[in-house]
Amino acid sequence: MTAWPTPEMVTTNGVRVGVYRMGPEVSVATKPPIFFLHGFPEIAYSWRAQMTAFADAGHPVFAPDQRGYGVSDAPEGVTEYTMQKLTDDLKGLLDYYGIERAVFVGHDWGAIILWSLPFYMPERLLGCAGLNVPLLPHYPMDPIEMFRARFGDDMYIVRFQEEGSCEPILERDLMLTFQFFLRKPNKGKPKKSDVPFEEKSLNLLTLLERGPDRWGGEQLLSDEETAVYAKAYEKNGFTGPLHWYRNFTSNWKDQRRFLVNGRLPKLTLPCLMITAELDRACPPTLAESMAGMCEDYTRVDLEGCGHWSQQERASEVNAAIMSWLEKMG
């Protein structure tokens, strides 16, 4: 595998963002540029297998540590992490690299941003490919209140809303935190013991504190790879990444301006959705409404795969995206 590159520090939308680049220069490439958007709690490094594969295939590829993460700036304040801010960061990166339009690929929170791009910056997109988290209809109520009513106060997204209470738990032992998060189901079998949180309440923080004997599943990455994540979070900690969650309500309110007759308009650009059978936080059933929300829609289901799809099933994810890009032409 090609060595992981040194990030370029790019000023965009008032913050410095570290961007990892591979492949040919945009000016000479014959294939479209691709931006890979990481989720929580990740960094651009999570896309290393995709970056190498698509660069070797002739695509200019880019993976930013998004604001609050990795080598990038982590401005203070919840309002610095709204969907408008996050999408404007990406628009600024396109401008910086002289890219009119690009393909975007996102996983987890990166997919939440991805499925917002057709509304916030439609003119800059060639296509959208989401992993694990689908495009969803506009929530009928405040999403935090909806999560609280469905899962209770201990559900991790609900707990994340209280600034300062979750950070010490996640930052106490960074290596242990990432050994907890970055897990996969044992042998791809759907057993409750393999799920790294309590399915009833999604009380992720309490399970982290209970220790490895209670986690289930198995460690996804080598200790060396896991240490890359732990080292990256020494700079900014978890406050910036958690602020993304603390904007669920404000982003939901802001999304109302895109609604037509109470619904999000149907997407017309090419869309790919990759689901993972054993992702308990984002099960494939969440994507069932997407076929009716996208005109040009492709879906690929990964059997026996957990949440961290692009790392757990890199070759299958790469093949699915490659095939989709070829179909786009």
Description:
By secondary structure, the protein is an alpha/beta fold. The chain has two domains: 8-139 and 260-328, Rossmann fold (3-Layer(aba) Sandwich), CATH 3.40.50; 143-245, no CATH class. Helix content is 35%, strand content 18%. The model is unreliable at 193-199 (pLDDT under 50).
Strand and helix map with partners:
Blueprint: E1 8-12, E2 15-22, E3 34-37, H1 48-56, E4 61-65, H2 83-96, E5 102-107, H3 109-114, H4 117-120, E6 125-131, H5 143-151, H6 156-159, H7 167-171, H8 174-181, E7 183-184, H9 204-210, E8 218-219, H10 223-236, H11 239-245, H12 248-255, E9 267-276, E10 294-302, H13 309-312, H14 314-328
Parallel strand pairs: 3-4, 3-5, 5-6, 6-9, 9-10
Antiparallel strand pairs: 1-2, 2-4, 7-8
Helix pairs in contact: 1-14, 8-10
Question: Can I get a quick summary?
Answer:
The protein is of the alpha/beta class and 329 residues long. It has helices at 48-56, 83-96, 109-114, 117-120, 143-151, 156-159, 167-171, 174-181, 204-210, 223-236, 239-245, 248-255, 309-312, 314-328, and strands spanning 8-12, 15-22, 34-37, 61-65, 102-107, 125-131, 183-184, 218-219, 267-276, 294-302.
One letter per element, helices H and strands E, the order comes to: EEEHEHEHHEHHHHEHEHHHEEHH
> CATH architecture of the largest domain, please?
3-Layer(aba) Sandwich
Radius of gyration: 19 Å
Strand content: 15-25%
Terminal residue distance: 27 Å
Might you state the CATH topology name of the largest domain? Rossmann fold
- Main sheet strand line-up: 1-2-4-3-5-6-9-10
